[in-house]
Inverse folding.
């Protein structure tokens, strides 16, 4: 109750947020994701758990978040749940395969977690309180009927449900099952295929099979507009819809944190601004951590910042102490270049469109200095005309450890930075 009152106090001075909050709770009830239970149902169970909730703002949108990691009397819901194995493919593998072929498609399953029902015996442990800001009465008790966001087991359970559904309904569509196993990263779907006809067929099969289980895959986008032109408008992404209606010349999609320009078929970086009134170690780490770079294309830039951070720790300082030494100009110079990241792009596909591949080689280079070491992988393709095409694949770097190592030893460390990631590049190849 105390946490509910705290949330109500925060909302009481903002009628707009109250409206959003009530709308979100009512939406959960209307969709059947959560139900209001009677006092008899509340008292019928011997064990239960109540999840606190509050409002957060992310990407300009207000969301109600359920804190399943809240600790009460040394008990924590998530600590008592098994996260389960990681069933989906690694993020890196999905992104590397996304760059293989000429035609690429993306989509996501709407409210994927909320499409998986809970056992009735588990529902009492996923309760929450709300009373529509009517603080003069006792709150209503709600129970989740589906997997909520925030529980540590939800990703594993939802992924298993989707995979099991496909296994039970694939009816000989082995290509679809293979795509499900390798192209889904939780609810996000990224796939590349050799031709538009194959891509359109795969989309239709995925939509039909998922619909049988109550899953709605939508937000479809493609670098070839004809592939998604036959879909209903509500099944296509907003950017793709504008592209098809000629209202936008350069549609952009978000693909697992990267920016994908469908028309030019290039990948780029989202602008991630972090506002801070003064430079402290806390803000430095926050800014550096916000630069999402799963493929390592901006490694030369972020490595500079990591070297500065390592140097900052040579002076004893607290997390919130203002940085005022000689390293401050170096950091400010680095930070001033952040806005230029949105101009950095690289081809989505490893090879140009409409070429016949004759030979493929993976080349990995590594090097080290006294300050840092790293490695980069390129793919070299020779086409049927004898022309050579080289494309960036992956890069990783580390700052040199504080204890001084010889350059040869650091070079050995550099060789190991791509040892595991390189395996994602080996089994499949672009065609």
């Amino acid at each position: 109750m105390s946490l509910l009152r705290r949330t109500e106090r925060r909302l009481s001075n903002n009628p707009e947020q109250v409206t959003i909050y009530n709308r979100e709770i009512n939406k959960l009830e209307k969709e059947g994701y959560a139900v209001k239970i009677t006092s008899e149902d509340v008292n019928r169970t011997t064990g239960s758990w109540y999840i606190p909730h509050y409002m957060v703002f992310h990407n300009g949108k207000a969301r109600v978040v359920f804190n399943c990691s809240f600790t009460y009397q040394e008990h924590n819901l998530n600590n008592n749940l098994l996260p389960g194995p990681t069933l989906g493919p690694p993020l890196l593998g999905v992104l590397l395969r996304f760059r293989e072929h000429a035609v690429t498609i993306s989509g996501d399953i709407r409210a994927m977690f909320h499409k998986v029902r809970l056992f009735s015996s588990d529902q009492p442990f996923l309760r929450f309180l709300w009373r529509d800001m009517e603080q003069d009465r006792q709150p209503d008790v709600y129970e989740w009927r589906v997997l909520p966001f925030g529980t540590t087991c939800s990703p594993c359970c939802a992924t298993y449900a989707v995979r099991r559904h496909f296994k039970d309904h694939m009816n000989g569509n082995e290509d679809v099952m293979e795509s499900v196993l390798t192209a889904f990263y939780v609810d996000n779907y990224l796939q590349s295929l050799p031709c538009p006809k194959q891509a359109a067929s795969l989309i239709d099969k995925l939509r039909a099979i998922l619909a049988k289980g109550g899953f709605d895959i939508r937000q479809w986008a493609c670098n070839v507009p004809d592939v998604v032109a036959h879909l209903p408008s509500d099944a296509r992404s907003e950017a793709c819809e504008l592209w098809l209606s000629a209202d936008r010349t350069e549609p952009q999609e978000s693909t697992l944190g990267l920016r994908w320009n469908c028309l030019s078929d290039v990948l780029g970086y989202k602008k991630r601004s972090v506002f801070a009134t003064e430079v402290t170690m806390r803000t430095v780490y926050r800014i550096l951590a916000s630069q999402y770079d799963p493929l390592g294309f901006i490694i030369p830039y972020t490595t500079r910042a990591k070297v500065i951070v390592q140097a900052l720790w040579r002076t004893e300082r607290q997390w919130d102490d203002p940085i005022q030494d000689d390293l401050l100009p170096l950091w400010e110079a680095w930070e001033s270049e952040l806005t230029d990241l949105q101009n950095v792009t690289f081809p989505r596909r490893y090879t140009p469109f409409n070429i016949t591949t004759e030979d493929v080689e993976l080349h990995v280079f590594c090097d080290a200095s006294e300050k840092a070491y790293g490695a980069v992988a390129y793919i070299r393709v020779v086409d049927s005309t004898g022309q050579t095409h080289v494309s960036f694949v992956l890069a990783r770097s580390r700052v040199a450890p504080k204890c001084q190592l010889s350059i040869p030893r650091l070079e050995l460390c550099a060789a190991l930075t791509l040892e595991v990631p390189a395996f994602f590049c080996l089994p499949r190849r672009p065609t």
Notes: Residues 96-111+155-262 form a domain with the Alpha-Beta Plaits fold (CATH 3.30.70). Residues 48 and 122 are 9 Å apart (CA to CA).
